[in-house]
Amino acid sequence: MKRSPLQDAIAEVLRQGESLLNSLSDREYTRKLPNVFGSTVGGHYLHCFDHFHSLLQGLDADEINYDHRKRNPRIESDRNFALSETLRILRGFASMSTPYLDCPIKVRSKVNYELDAAPSIRSTVGRELMYAVAHAIHHYALIAVMCGMLEVPVPAGFGVAPSTFKYHVEQPQAA
């Protein structure tokens, strides 16, 4: 079965997460960093994971609701559990057929601080996969900063948008 570039991107981003989880100690994963509003790598990883999970759950329900995230605290606090759940989600996306990416789907998300209503809009499965990848890369950039504070190296390209990564690779080196 031929895979689409979106499916490859999802797999790549989830494998980057797997690599990150394998490079951190349990203490580094859960350490609160005062300079980053007291957040943890695990907290940011949970947030990314929840968007992927919401997306998969929404495919069965014909509506993705990004506000109804599972928010499993165990993913935030247990690095090994987060790793096993990442591999489970990776398998879930790997089984998706390429033609399914063009299927329409409703998406719901709260976008207003004052109103409780979460508007529903029409999208496609592929567009939501694209969003989940971009969202994860954004949070991976924050995680990379946190790892820098913890003096933990991150995988190459971690938290860098593919277009930015390509741009930097193609630039001539300064003498």
Primary descriptors:
175 residues; mainly alpha; 7 helices; 58% helix
Q: What does this 3D model show about the protein?
A:
- α3 packs parallel to α5 and α3 runs antiparallel to α6.
- The protein has 7 helices and 3 strands.
- Strands 1-2-3 form a 3-stranded mixed beta sheet.
- It is globular, with a radius of gyration of 17 Å.
- By secondary structure, it is mainly alpha-helical.
- Helices cover 58% and strands 7% of the residues.
Layout of secondary structure:
Elements: H1 5-23, H2 26-30, H3 41-61, E1 63-65, H4 73-77, H5 79-94, E2 104-108, E3 120-124, H6 125-150, H7 162-170
Parallel strand pairs: 1-2
Antiparallel strand pairs: 2-3
Helix pairs in contact: 1-5, 1-6, 3-5, 3-6
Q: What's the quick description here?
A:
With 175 residues, this protein is mainly α.
- Derived from helix and strand composition plus strand pairing, the structural class reads mainly alpha
Query: What's the N-to-C terminus distance?
Result: 46 Å
- What is the spatial order of strands in the main beta sheet? 1-2-3
User: Uncertain segments of ≥5 residues (pLDDT<50)?
Assistant: none
Round the mean pLDDT to the nearest integer and report it. Answer: 90
* Strands, total number: 3
Helix content: 55-70%
The gyration radius over C-alpha positions equals: 17 Å
* Percentage of residues in strands: 5-15%
The major β-sheet equals: 3 strands, mixed
Shape: globular
Write down the secondary-structure element order. HHHEHHEEHH
